[in-house]
Amino acid sequence: MTLWGFVTISTNGTDEGAESLGKEPTQEELAALARFRFALRRFLAFSEQAAADLGLTMQWYQALLVIKTFRAGDHISVGELAEQLMIRDHSAAELVSRLVQAKLVKRKTDPSDRRRSLVIMTPSGDRRLAQLAAVHLERLRENKDAFLNLFNVDPE
């Protein structure tokens, strides 16, 4: 099975194909992976709460981040948003509808292809994203060693 185009693994419960993944991880590497997973889950829990504190879901925050930064701020289509968030097109369309209803984004018909909808941030969406991005960046800066030192990366 291929996960997001990154790794192919066996899903039949056997070790078949395991040798193609390389050498077996050491105890230290497994511990580093466990620490990374814990740090990541702790950050994601923080992110979810920070978004909720501003009346957003984590998926809304992720969508706003993608919409704002896609191709240096160029308008993004619903299909492109779906691809970036790794969700289905119809799920992205429903997500955009909720963001429109919350007045965080608006839809615009693509002038070059009237079948496509483009998603544009509103000033309210920009403000909410700026608030959330600021607290996320602050948390990451406070805890950068938790991520950088997991795999013996020198934090500078």
CATH architecture heading? Orthogonal Bundle
Radius of gyration, taken over Cα atoms and rounded to an integer in Å: 19 Å
CATH topology grouping: Arc Repressor Mutant, subunit A
Number of helical segments?
6
What does this structure look like?
There is one protein chain. By secondary structure, the chain is mainly α. It has one domain: Winged helix-like DNA-binding domain superfamily/Winged helix DNA-binding domain (Arc Repressor Mutant, subunit A, Orthogonal Bundle), CATH 1.10.10. Helix content is 54%, strand content 10%. It has a three-stranded antiparallel β-sheet. The longest helix is centred in the N-terminal third of the chain and has 27 residues. The chain is globular, with a radius of gyration of 19 Å. 15% of the residues are buried. The model has no long low-confidence stretch (mean pLDDT 86).
Itemize the secondary structure elements and their pairings.
Layout: E1 2-3, E2 7-8, H1 27-53, H2 58-69, E3 76-77, H3 78-85, H4 89-101, E4 105-109, E5 117-121, H5 123-142, H6 144-148
Antiparallel strand pairs: 1-2, 3-5, 4-5
Helix pairs in contact: 1-5, 2-5, 3-4
